[in-house]
Design brief:
Number of helices: 10
CATH superfamily of the largest domain: Ribonuclease H-like superfamily/Ribonuclease H
Mean pLDDT: 75
Strand order of the largest sheet: 3-2-1-4
Number of domains: 2
Number of strands: 4
CATH architecture of the largest domain: 2-Layer Sandwich
CATH class of the largest domain: Alpha Beta
Shape: elongated
Radius of gyration: 29 Å
């Protein structure tokens, strides 16, 4: 019976709004009670009851869940929200958190679908590994690493190339474009050359993607080689604050400005 009364209450509230907007087709309270075979007196008695302890607890949990969801910028799903509640001493199940988030219509930003950015050229010769898995550096501008990540915007996919100095993990060059051609890499390297001093014989290390293959007309002071191992640069791009509510509203121009 409570479900019927709850349905009537929700529809009646919506009907009041519709009538304020001069929509005459909204059903009245008496009509809904007749259709669902309940009495108006029973509805008013149900509505005047004090909130039960269980209902009060659910409303309290809804408020906490909504606050946590806002705090973490709409990124956390029900599992992470549940973990935060448990960490704060709340005794609540993950399933209840999931149901309450659905009732509140709280849907986190989903992870980006996988897109392949490392594509080795079929005719590309293997490059020598000049770093040998040693990603430390004793001075700036001696060893650089790079990678490409992707960003989904309202205007479509864009690709971000970064150049990171192994000495202090500083991003010294970057470029954004709507393609993954070699120009994306060389533009990022050009920024690194313009803004930082690179040592003679500087090494640029990337993964096996064909975009990073050396070109005969590359930069004058470009790094001398690209090696073919696992690159630490993806560890940087994976920590970038995407996705969240602000980034999913962003436009390409905001990244390329």
């Amino acid at each position: 019976m409570s479900e019927k009364y709850g349905f009537i209450a929700a529809e009646y509230a919506a009907g009041l709004t519709a009538r304020r907007l001069r929509a005459d087709d909204a059903p009245t309270l008496g009509q809904m009670c007749r259709w669902l075979a309940v009495s108006r007196s029973g509805f008013y008695e149900w509505r005047s009851r004090p909130m039960s302890a269980t209902a009060a607890r659910r409303e309290e949990m809804k408020a906490k869940i909504a606050a946590l969801f806002e705090l973490f910028d709409a990124v956390y799903g029900y599992r992470r929200i549940h973990a935060e509640l448990v960490r704060d001493g709340e005794q609540v199940s993950a399933e209840l958190v999931r149901k309450l988030m659905r009732e509140l219509e709280l849907y986190p930003c989903q992870p980006r679908p996988y897109r392949t950015t490392t594509i080795r050229g079929q005719d590309e010769p293997a490059s020598a590994d000049l770093i040998g898995r040693d990603f430390g550096a004793d001075q700036p501008g001696a060893k650089l690493v790079g990678d490409i990540t992707y960003i989904r915007t309202w205007e479509g996919w864009v690709y971000l190339a970064t150049v990171i100095d192994c000495f202090n993990r500083e991003v010294i060059g970057w470029a954004v474009a709507d393609h993954m051609r070699t120009d994306l890499i060389t533009d990022a390297l050009a920024m690194a050359v313009r803004n930082h001093t690179l040592e003679p014989g500087c090494i640029f290390h990337s993964d096996r993607g064909s975009q990073g293959a050396p070109r005969p007309h590359s930069l004058t002071r470009s790094p001398t080689a690209r090696c073919a191992g696992r690159c630490p640069a993806p560890g940087y791009v994976s920590t970038m604050p995407w996705p969240n509510r602000s980034s999913r509203r962003s436009r390409t121009s905001e990244f390329t400005a």
